Amino acid sequence: MPDPGRADDPGRILVIRLGALGDFLLSLGPMAAIREAHPNARITLLTTRPYARIGRDCGLFDDIMLDERPKLYDIRGILALRRRLRDGGFSFVYDLQTSDRSGFYFRLFGRTRRPGWSGIVAAGSHPHRNPRRTRMHTIERQADQLREAGLAEVPLSDLSFLQGDVSGLVPEGPLALLLPGGAPHRPDKRWPAANYAEIACRLSARGITPVLIGTDAEREVIAQVTAACPAALSLMNRTDFGQIATLARRAVLTLGNDTGPMHLVTLAGGRALVLFSSSSDPALCGQRGAAVRHLSAPRLEDLPPAAVWEALIAANGAGDGPPLSPTPAPSSPAACAGRSA
Known about the structure:
The protein is α/β, with parallel strands linked by helices. The protein is 34% helix and 15% strand. The protein is elongated and about 65 Å long.
């Protein structure tokens, strides 16, 4: 079996990272470390369809293998995946997913054709045995896992390759991004729409265009914000990952809930404030970046807009763009509704 720490060993290497968005983006640093350690290897990424383009564009992989995530009862799908894994000729696998599913893929290789394996599978050649792994942030956990496989240096994810054309999407002048969404089954991770509307009004009063990012899952909350603050601009369903990254770099700041797109914003270099309820711990899953702050409350519905506004002022700091004055501004929907963009 090739030594995973030897850069002169070409070999064929498989990296497994299926999702979700935030986890995938946080794994780009470990992926870069793997490429650095194996400059001559042919490296394949096994991922799901939503993240295939990022895998191609990041420049770290020679091949992308799509995982359709077959159900256990889908015998044909399981056998097809087993054939693709076995025919890949992989000498080593870095399992960055470390889930029951990726552990099952370890078994699909079979005993006689099993490659070296970095992950949590006990029978793997380089298991991550740290008993504290579930109490570590994703970045530190994966760096610790890779150290067990001989990779000492793991950088923070670099999203500079993510670029998008935003001409015609937003007006000239300063803007702020608002990402009010979240998983539909996790309403406890969403700050109320009325509060986002109040922040949008405060931004508009200072000449900053509030720009709302989201998909159909955020249709209702975005509609509530734009109804209360007509100056707010909705880009619902109009942005891809590259455009969000570009807008985040241009924006004065970004405010959002603890979601995958907020990982994109902060890793892309955007200045951001992320809101957390007791349902998630920023010490374990918080966004990382050069200019990110977290604000927590046991229940987000109890977090007043005034407190968030003061935190935004602090997060804005002395960065580029117009400063956010702490001077109170008309912030009720009635006060904002009469303003035009």
